[in-house]
Amino acid sequence: MRLLFLSNEVLNCQRFLTVNAMAKVKITQIKSTIKRPKDQKATISALGLGKINKSVEVERTPQIQGMINKIGHLVKTEDI
Fold it and tell me: Is pLDDT at 15 greater than 90 in this prediction?
């Protein structure tokens, strides 16, 4: 009986992850990286940005959210 309960928990987790994995975010660079630390410049380039007003659409994952938090003052984000 317990195994059936655990399998239902696993299915619920998979559904939750699938729904959240499809969420996308549009990131637009709005400020320059001149006179910014190297780690912020590297984060901008890792996201595929590099010029002002350039935009990318990526899936919202914990890794991408961390990048957005790190360079939030240089970019504008929109949920899609």
Answer: no
